[in-house]
Amino acid sequence: MSPLVPLICTLIPILVLQLGTTLDLRAPWNVATCIMIIFVCLTCIQHTMTDVLYIDYVIGMGIASTAMDAIHMTLLVRPLHIFRHQEQPQPAHELPWSKRFIWAAQLCGSPRGLDWNHRVKYLPEHSTKSRQEFVLSHLTSAASHTVWLDLAQFYIEHNPAFKSAAAFASQNFTRRILACSGYMVFYHCMCLIIHSLMSAFAVSFTSSKPSSWPSLFGKWEDAYTIRRFWGRTWHQLLRRFLTPFGKEMASFLGFKPGTNGSSYTQLYTAFFISGIVHVGGDAALNFSHLGLSWPFFIYQALAITFEDMTIAAARRAGVTETKWTRKMGYVWVICWLVVTTTQWVTATVIAGLEDGKAALPSRFFRFSLCDILVRYAGVL
Hints:
The chain is mostly helical. Helices cover 67% and strands 0% of the residues. The protein has two domains: 4-108; 131-376, no CATH class. The protein has 14 helices and no strands.
């Protein structure tokens, strides 16, 4: 299969969503549009196979994210009427169709709502650096994360556990933690490198401002609870549609805003929908293991509920927040994520290997500085 096919199948659902957004349809045509976009997503997700475990999962997840955003854009809100760019001179629904399409492309290309009236909460602070300083810092960030990416790539390529599903499953828990950590480092660094290069390019060659490109991830020191990890430290790329889904569900169940019922309904709905998005990755990875990612996200909602109960009990007992309670929080977050993420990544890697996919085929990742240095030293 040509490598262009997965790329085209990734872009088609986004283009169809943009087209549907420009039409500003009401019932029943908005429902028909939503069904059509989801059908396009389901069709395209079957043709995204690159036989690269990491790439297939990310593409499948991206297409599923487009499907969820389609439900949000066509059924829950009227984008042309409620979303507005900061530099937009007139409402989008008053623009001619060609400009509405460009507007929709900008909207879909900014899932965190940067420079829009729906900017998601808790994003990192605006950059106050000059253009030159911003570009230099992001190129430096890309270079430093490339080193970590190369280390993770070297570890994965030379770890026999990644050669077959049986080998990966036969590892003891400690080795499995190391293997899964290597894979998550690879994923994390790849995301940061892509974002850093895109940011540097946009600020260098377009009118885009440094303040329009906050960091992809928040501060790690904020992650002293599971809630804060997912709400502040981890990327917020899905939050634009997760929040409306949660609010609609809370309203449907009759919970008033600000109540515990509303809060926890939104919490569980957000992780439920997030799980569905990642099930798209399962579908692209190995359709016979559909749904293996979903429990991980429900576990996070359960952990946050337990965490809230524990914090509330501690406050009633007179315990106040100190640097030591935060340190205990960091330990709790690390332990929880190590255990649950290891189970999740193990399941996805085994599913991909069973389907004949390779972790990092050399045709995609041919150059490795670590590999060259080790071979030069005569170790391998």
